[in-house]
Amino acid sequence: MYPSKFDYVRAQSVEEAVERTSSHSNAKLLAGGHSLIPALKLRLAQPDLLVDLGRIAALKGISRHNGTVSVGALTTHATCAASDDLPKVWSEAAGLIGDPQVRNRGTVGGNIAHADPASDLPTVLIALGAQIHVQGTAGSRAIPADEFFVDLFTTSLEEGEIITRVEVPAESNQGSAYTKVFNPASRYAILGVAAQVAIAGGVCRQLRVAAGGSTPKAIRAHHVEAALQGQPLNDTTIQHAAAAIAEDLGEEVIGDMYASAAYRRSIAAQIAARALSAAAARAR
Ligand SMILES: Cc1cc2nc3c(=O)[nH]c(=O)nc-3n(C[C@H](O)[C@H](O)[C@H](O)COP(=O)(O)OP(=O)(O)OC[C@H]3O[C@@H](n4cnc5c(N)ncnc54)[C@H](O)[C@@H]3O)c2cc1C
Fold first, then answer.
1. In the CATH hierarchy, which fold is given to the domain comprising 174-283?
2. Whose C-alpha lies nearest to ligand 1, atom 11?
3. Nearest 5°: phi and psi at 4?
4. Which of 73, 151, 250, 281 has the largest count of CB atoms under 10 Å?
5. How high does pLDDT run on average in the chain?
6. For residue 119, which atom of ligand 1 is closest to its CA?
7. Cβ contacts of residue 125 below 8 Å, gap of 6+?
8. pLDDT > 90? residue 25
């Protein structure tokens, strides 16, 4: 199907993009276009104006300072996959996204603004305790990843706000990993688990775990974390803690044409255990 008619402008700065989108009643931002263009063609989105962010250099790239890593909203998944500055869980997940074309065009900001429940980045950003920086007519603010993802395809972005960058703590003494079972056609997650762990004195001292792909929005796995905190990290403790993911997933597990809810539930502990084991091995 052809998209409905729209005007197109290429913004030269974040300020111009904010001004263009907020002064227009039915405008949409365009980044890599990998979710928006299909939505336009299916007429699920029918904006009158597309504001292209693609040439705003200030939104691109990865930088590290004062113990944090900052990733511009227009940074592609391919750049993230190749980065040594990002925590391993992020670069690993980025390398598992779609295919080379998707990784070369798809952007961090577009991925999280779209908030597809099958996307990998929401899971990773919740596990890392990321801050999502946005700019709008009222100024700038930072939104914790835990609060950014609200529901299926729904975020806490206000009308006219633009994601400018995502900030995560740099990995120092932690190990982290991402494991997913994916749709073989698109590589979107059927279930993905992200884990970051620090070990001190032979036991788990710090742990953040998140899961996505199986619930309307990615979730923090508090039950898994509580089961492993202060424990030695071995096969027995990891298997035991991973089983607690059933409680974290709760009642809202998705069943669709790719995988039933029962299937997703049946693989969850196994995938969580793999992510925890890989993160623990890296932390050691
Ligand atoms: C075949 C295929 C396979 C894929 N597989 C995976 C996968 O395995 N895992 C995964 O995580 N993802 C996957 N994706 C998604 C992909 O990774 C992209 O990140 C995603 O399509 C959106 O990014 P984009 O830059 O293309 O955004 P666009 O399509 O340009 O925009 C998406 C939405 O975000 C808004 N937006 C864009 N930038 C901003 C911004 N800076 N601030 C506020 N709003 C903004 C747009 O207005 C639009 O509503 C896949 C996509 C395709 C087509």
1. Enolase-like; domain 1 (3.30.390)
2. 119
3. -70, 165
4. 73
5. 96
6. 11
7. 112, 132, 145, 148, 166, 168
8. no
